Amino acid sequence: MLNHGGAISKVALNYNIPVSEWLDLSTGINLNGYVVNDIPARAWLKLPDCDNELIQAAKLYYNTEFLLSCNGSQSVIQLLPRLRNVSKVGLVFPSYNEHEYAWSKYNHQINHIDPDNILQAAYDNDVVIICNPNNPSGRFYEVEELLECHSILMTKKGWLIVDEAFIDTDKAYSLTSLADKQGLIVLRSIGKFFGLAGARVGFVVAEPTFLELIQNELGPWCVAGPSQYIVTKALLDTRWQSENILDLQQRSQRLRKILLLNNLSIAGSTNYFHWIINDKAYLIQNMLAKQAIWIRHFDNPLSVRIGIPALESDWEKLQLALKKINTV
Questions:
Q1: Domain residue extents for the chain
Q2: Which of 26, 67, 244, 302 meets the CB 3.0–4.6 Å disulfide criterion with 281?
């Protein structure tokens, strides 16, 4: 298995600091996430319904009639490479590394593509995978460019896969309302914006025949009843959504100012994290870890990704820790 953010229990053990003392900024998850206090007994006592309130709420939220719920978008990421013959697969690098890992396991030819020229990648590959915005660089791709990329791929029955895990605060870039086209597959996650990563709920948006193929592979009861109940409420709560888009934007700008004041140049951003290319990436991660703050590091290029705090006490903790690094 690949390394990701989180895993605080292991980190806490390595640094001999109790789990309760850690501030985890390694995942990009909204730490001011959606909260549901009471889950009705019926959510636990019956098998999950496949054609239920969750699907109707998701269709409204994503502005499409063509979607399927799944046990986190990760489950579909792992499935897709099994649904094609061996192909040439173009991926932006660096990006969410589970895509490359999944396709390489089934002997597809992996090609790292120029993030500034995805149209050329469409000519050179059978499948192009784009995270929009990209993780960790924060790069956004315009709808028109992605549709042109898809058109090129369609001339050879190729696929464009767009992973929109971090797009909820920037919906103008989303393709979900257009994903009824053959060969266009859009993945959405509940874990980041709604802060419900533990619910393990995601969606795949695609044309109906392809969704049926995925459904047959995933099987019944992909999403647990309690998760369905919570996520349905989150998708329908438009007031919470509007307030938290603004909240994330403001917190992201606040972190940007703090990082720049501490001489950490920002290479890319979203409303969930900032990406810092720095030759001292490991040192930065280690020094923050010694102060019970966990961030994500990347090897190529040497860099760190820092998520957005929520509680005022966490902001104070981070600012104090960054000042100590700034003196080294």
A1: 8-28+239-326, 48-236
A2: 302
Walk along the chain (328 residues) and give the pLDDT tens digit of each residue: 556 565 788 999 999 999 999 999 999 999 999 998 888 888 888 888 765 899 999 999 999 999 999 999 999 999 999 999 999 999 999 999 999 999 999 999 999 999 999 999 999 999 999 999 999 999 999 999 999 999 999 999 999 999 999 999 999 999 999 988 999 999 999 999 999 999 999 999 999 999 999 999 998 888 999 999 999 999 999 999 999 999 999 999 999 999 999 999 999 999 999 999 999 999 999 999 999 999 999 998 999 999 999 999 999 999 999 998 875 5
**pTM to 2 decimal places:** 0.94
Give the pair of three-digit tokens for residue 298.
Answer: 């990347």
Contacts 24+ apart (CB under 8 A), 211-219: 211/66, 211/67, 211/68, 213/83, 214/68, 214/70, 214/76, 214/79, 214/83, 215/68, 217/79, 217/82, 217/83, 218/68, 218/70, 218/71, 218/75, 218/76, 218/79
CATH fit for domain 8-28+239-326, picks 3.40.50.1980, 3.90.1150.10, 3.40.50.300, 3.40.50.720: 3.90.1150.10
